[in-house]
Write a structure and sequence with these properties.
This protein is an alpha/beta fold. It folds into two domains: about 130 residues, ATPase, nucleotide binding domain (Nucleotidyltransferase, domain 5, 2-Layer Sandwich), CATH 3.30.420; about 110 residues, Nucleotidyltransferase, domain 5 (2-Layer Sandwich). Helices cover about 30% and strands about 25% of the residues. The strands form four sheets. Strands 1, 2, 3, 4, 5 and 8 form a six-stranded mixed sheet that branches. A five-stranded mixed sheet has the order 11-10-9-14-15. A two-stranded antiparallel ribbon has the order 6-7. Helix 3 crosses helix 7. It is globular, with a radius of gyration of 17 Å. It binds beta-D-glucopyranose. The site of beta-D-glucopyranose (BGC) has 18 residues, from helix 3. Beta-D-glucopyranose (BGC) binds next to helix 3.
Length: about 260
């Protein structure tokens, strides 16, 4: 007899791309192709909603409210409201985003921060599974997102991409995110030197037991992780850049992130 599988849809809204897939929640893997569209310039709410509808259409689930839907967003999310906007329009600040998506999509959703849901995916199905103590997952993308997980439990809405570089008074993410690597045409070595500063600083502040690195660039982890010297083990996310989709879908099933 075939094993019973349960599916949900995950949408991961990022500063650069909006990715989605149907997820097999028993296996913790994509059960469909991954679909992706560019995040509309300026990332205004109406344009983002249209793009989310487009990826759901492509997946063939836009009108199927029987499949749970999780949506991840690159901002602080508290009780359905987005409270920050680092790489999206300022209109999201203090915005009833969950309700906006529910009204616009005509269905219930579960809504949370993008790095937090990637953390959930890695706890349930990946590198943080069964790890005791403090795991810090960081996503290196347009910005730097973070998930703090202690003994398997997520502490939501950490914003470790926004620690300040003392000398420069700028956010860490402006200096060390993958977007800085691309924007400035850095070599892996030059970028790794920035990551060395970043992870040493976070290591000093939190004394974690494990760092996990997610985001699209995690598929090239062999080019930069071996260059880092840290007292804390640092590994790529098992689900690489799909962790956000998988975690958003997993959350839709259990709804347990604030
Ligand atoms: C945002 C975070 C987000 C991260 C990754 C940061 O700029 O403040 O909320 O998790 O980017 O998208």
């Amino acid at each position: 007899m075939a094993a019973k599988t349960t599916h949900a849809v995950g949408v991961d809204i990022g500063g650069t791309g909006i990715k989605a897939g149907i997820v097999d929640l028993d296996a913790g893997q994509l059960a469909s192709d991954r679909v992706k569209v560019a995040t509309p310039a300026g990332a205004e709410p109406d344009d983002v909603l249209r793009a989310v509808r487009q990826v759901l259409d492509t997946l063939g689930v836009a009108d199927d409210a029987s499949v749970a839907l999780g949506v991840a967003f690159p901002a602080i999310v508290k009780r359905g409201r987005t409270l920050s906007a680092a790489n999206v329009s300022d209109k999201w600040i203090g915005f009833e985003a969950e309700k906006f998506f529910e009204d616009g999509l005509g269905r219930e959703i579960h809504f949370a921060n993008d790095a937090d849901v990637a953390g959930v995916a890695e706890v349930r199905y990946g590198a943080a599974k069964g790890v005791d103590g403090l795991v810090i997952l960081t996503t290196l993308g347009t910005g730097i997102g973070s998930a703090l997980i202690y003994d398997g439990v997520l502490v939501p809405n950490s914003e470790l991409g926004h620690v300040q570089r003392a000398k420069h008074g700028k956010d860490a993410e402006a200096y060390a995110a993958y977007s800085a690597f691309e924007r400035e045409g850095l070599t892996w070595e030059k970028w790794a030197a920035r990551l060395q500063w970043y992870y040493s600083h976070i290591e000093f502040l939190f004394s974690p037991d494990l760092f996990i690195v997610g985001g699209g660039v995690s598929k090239h982890a062999q080019n930069f992780l071996p260059l880092l010297e840290l007292g804390t083990p640092i590994v790529p996310a098992v689900h690489r850049n799909n962790a956000g989709i998988i975690g958003a879908a997993a959350l839709a099933r259990t709804g347990d992130v604030a």
